[in-house]
Amino acid sequence: MISVNDFKTGLTVEVDGDIFTVIDFQHVKPGKGAAFVRSKLKNLRNGNTVERTFRAGENIGRAIIENRAVQYLYNSGSEYSFMDNESFDQFTLEKKQLEWEVNFLKENMTVNITSYQGEIIGINMPNSVDLKVIETEPGVKGNTAQGATKNATVETGLNVQVPLFINEGDVLLIDTREGKYISRA
Q1: Structural domains in the chain?
Q2: Residue 160: is it exposed, middle or buried by C-beta count within 10 angstroms (0-12/13-18/19+)?
Q3: Burial tier of 98 (Cβ tally within 10 Å: 0-12, 13-18, 19+)
Q4: pTM of the prediction?
Q5: At residue 30, does pLDDT exceed 60?
């Protein structure tokens, strides 16, 4: 158990059977009445953000989140197969658990899996990945007045806006948080 007075940004807690991470918190001491803690919490299972108010000194459960390195092997339909790098156990995750991450997963890529009491919550991607351009239209000379961009499809199927000088076969550095072009790799 942990007191809400000890809240810190990034702390993981269990409230009403769900797992949350503390995004923001504020200790409030009104002139009249008891002190309380106003907090913004992100649900780690579904990604929803909620605002909760707790009485000062109230105790809630601390959630211990495990992170471990796994290797992405392959996908078959809507199932994505991974292998634990330490125990070599294989397991699968459904596409609905990895909606955003599938845009960046390449075979044999190492990612971190997040779990709570054996339940896999999600995966943590690196901040950027190298992806090869498989399709883009050629840049037209003269369209470069104000940093013009064009659409490019990378090997995972993600569409990215890129500068006109990018060609098919180029390897790009893509930001996994926003899905945007950073630079050539």
Answers
A1: 2-62 (2.30.30.30), 66-124 (2.40.50.140), 129-184 (2.40.50.140)
A2: buried
A3: buried
A4: 0.71
A5: yes
